[in-house]
Amino acid sequence: MAVPRKYWVFLEEELGLVKTIYSDIVDVLKTKGSPSGTYLPREKIEFLRGSDFDKLIVMDRLKPIQIVNLIKELRRDVIDRVMLILEIFAEHAGSKEAKMQIELARLKYYIPLVKEAIRYAKIGELHGFLGAGRYGYEKYYLMLKKREARVRRELEELRRIRGMRRMQRLKAGFPHVAIAGYTCAGKTTLFNAITGLSMPVGPEPFTTLSPKSRRIVYRDASFILTDTVGFIRDLPPEVIEAFYATLEEITTADVIVNVVDASKPIERIRIELETTREILGRIGVHSKPMVVALNKIDLVDDYASIVSEVKVLLASNETLVPVSSVKRINIDRLMDTVYMLVKGGYQ
Ligand SMILES: Nc1nc2c(ncn2[C@@H]2O[C@H](COP(=O)(O)OP(=O)(O)OP(=O)(O)O)[C@@H](O)[C@H]2O)c(=O)[nH]1
Ligand SMILES: [Mg+2]
């Protein structure tokens, strides 16, 4: 695994991503990360050539030419951070829609790679590359393009159905509350605590890929609560595009509950808040009423100081409620805040 300088401070999180799929990490190579044709400097490549490993994972977004060059140089499998995230998503995709969303994201990322491979006339040099097998890259490329068009059409259809369901909910007059936030913050645990359901939760990233909605009655308000897919730093645009139908559940929400993990250092909390805001901005969500659910408060020793530190990070449309979804601390207070915001928008 090669980690560029910009991610050294996030080494734990990056390792966590890799370990979700690959349990046996032989070595962690720190590198500057360069725009050169092979991304890694010559001496690192020489070092890797003589090392014993099956696959190199570069925790950066590489250009297609860089991936192809690395595969050629090392004669081993090479994937980058985007491909890794797509693998994790693929592993966790349960619903048909999630599977197709992942496939589209993968196709969008792989097609330029195959195109690059075609430019290498000597195809035999790219050993086992992208499973092209006996087809040859030209045929493979055409097949991928066709498949992309088909998946896109099918997803459009699913998106239309999802949109219709959403319209029905709107017509029925139910406001919509979406639970969003960084991956592993505890969104599904909170969703379960509120709804009484037991959707899968877990310490590994991207446990939830299909949004789940449930009608909630709280005091005299009825609203639809939706759990959504988690965010991460540098989430590839291909993933955002492929998951747009899912993320639309957030764009059409009246209120957003942004779940934040209070047990992380304040600098990480700041980055996660920013990441969530940035991704929300990218899908067109700006200054909606938002409750910041500062979750996992049961793990925090100095409750008062973490709350005051997070408070200063908030924007004017954001209200803070410290909670523990596991220990069910302050869930009522969170619901009261959501209730007020929902009522505020619907009177
Ligand atoms: N101690 C503690 N652990 C929590 C709390 N809420 C969630 N967790 C744990 O945090 C981990 C992630 O929880 P999830 O609910 O799966 O998180 P998520 O945000 O839905 O994650 P993704 O769907 O993967 O994006 C799990 O191991 C939970 O048990 C909490 O309030 N306190
Ligand atoms: Mg989840």
From TrEMBL:
Domain Hflx-type G positions: 175-346
Subcellular location: Cytoplasm
This protein's UniProt keywords: Cytoplasm, GTP-binding, Magnesium, Metal-binding, Nucleotide-binding
InterPro entries: G_HFLX_dom (IPR030394), GTP-bd (IPR006073), GTP-bd_M (IPR032305), GTPase_HflX (IPR016496), GTPase_HflX_N (IPR025121), GTPase_HflX_N_sf (IPR042108), P-loop_NTPase (IPR027417), Small_GTP-bd (IPR005225)
Keyword GTP-binding annotated: yes
GO cellular component, one term: cytoplasm
Pfam families: GTP-bdg_M (PF16360), GTP-bdg_N (PF13167), MMR_HSR1 (PF01926)
Keyword flag Nucleotide-binding: yes
Cofactor annotation: Mg(2+)
Binding site for Mg(2+): 188, 208
Positions with a binding annotation for GTP: 181-188, 206-210, 227-230, 295-298
Gene Ontology MF terms: GTP binding; GTPase activity; metal ion binding; ribosome binding
Family: Belongs to the TRAFAC class OBG-HflX-like GTPase superfamily. HflX GTPase family.
Its job: GTPase that associates with the 50S ribosomal subunit and may have a role during protein synthesis or ribosome biogenesis.
Subunit structure: Monomer. Associates with the 50S ribosomal subunit.
HAMAP family, per database record: GTPase_HflX (MF_00900)
Protein name: GTPase HflX
